[in-house]
């Protein structure tokens, strides 16, 4: 018995000692989980998120890496941390048998004279037992105009020469005018609301839209809703217009409050896309909004109109499909002439007109995609003309003329699992929205396609 125990203990000690030995053979193997570590667009001076890869010791003995280093050394735009140790080169890194370590990498792009995206490259060398393993690094850098907690005054124009990156927020001062030219891209940080106390005029084209989006362009974040606050047209703001403008990935899209102080609407939205917005795509609070040929899609609540106001929506597609980013739990159109605040209920006059519009949703818990609430005795008028909508129950407090109820609009391609949302119409089966609209003064759809004598309902003409 004692002899058996002695043999067992000897074997245990032998194998334990063997496990602590380092494999020094040139035949030792080492792998990484990737060959190339790629970063999406990184704005100069801002820096990137941290990405990582793993180094695996596939041997039954410990492995000592001679070094892990950036090929360009301290001149590299990339920064590295190896198993908790930062530096351009980390020596004598130990990996236990059949174990792995993490290498974390960041990149910073220095400004250049280029107005175009540029490529940053380097590599990480892993040396062991006379062997080398290479992991390539690549990133796309972009110069930009950086604005932090900025108040704009006077008459200003932004153009597409460089993108604008906004941190901490921006404010168009009372009586100031910001003109944004076609092709201009504005990227906003999570702490950066776009506040309009004066006038905003964003004028894009079909091929060169003005784009408002979050400033996180890496793969895991570029399509996340609520990545920036939104555009706020506040009390003194006036004569705002957006044409061929894309607003995406915000917490709220367009927020307008108070009635216009001029004969023009507070905000005019023409041929615009508001998409993937966590809360309201369009939120109007006792204000004036005109919209035509717009797509307002996949928002927490696409359109909210509160405390009355005056609204006209012509040839708009308002649709949401429940997906893994935003659950479809609220009607795509919510209208009320009231607002509750501090225990009090306030009401105001309301006039809303919807013509040639689609109100549709799927993949959620919503029965009526239109919800209308009326309080008090103020003037109240909500009219739907030649529109297509989805509703299980009767909709009160509104009039409907020549409308289509509960007929699928037959959008071209919807695949929530692959994040595909094409709101054009299929050729087969034919959409009930085709040629079902009323003629209007708006002659071009969202794609700048000429409308037929009998236009289609929605933002697109087939």
Task: Summarize, please.
By secondary structure, the protein is mainly beta.
- The fold-level CATH name of the largest domain is Pectate Lyase C-like
The helicity comes to: under 10%
What is the name of the CATH class of the largest domain? Mainly Beta
Strand content range: over 45%
Q: Indicate the radius of gyration in whole angstroms.
A: 29 Å
Secondary-structure class:
mainly beta
Distance between the termini: 89 Å
Shape descriptor: elongated
The poorly predicted ranges are: 4-15
CATH architect. name of the largest domain: 3 Solenoid
Count of DSSP helices?
1
Strands, total number:
40
Give the overall average pLDDT.
Answer: 93
Largest sheet: 26 strands, parallel
Q: In total, how many domains does the architecture comprise?
A: 2
What can you see in these coordinates?
It is a single chain. With 462 residues, the chain is mainly β. It has two domains: 22-141, Immunoglobulins (Immunoglobulin-like), CATH 2.60.40.10; 145-425, Pectate Lyase C-like. The protein contains one helix and 40 strands. The strands form five sheets. The chain has a 26-stranded parallel beta sheet that branches. The chain has a five-stranded antiparallel beta sheet with strand order 1-3-8-5-6, with no helix packed on it. Strands 2-10-9-4-7 form a five-stranded mixed beta sheet, with no helix packed on it. Strand 5 (78-82) and strand 6 form a beta hairpin. The termini are far apart. Residues 4-15 have low confidence and may be disordered.
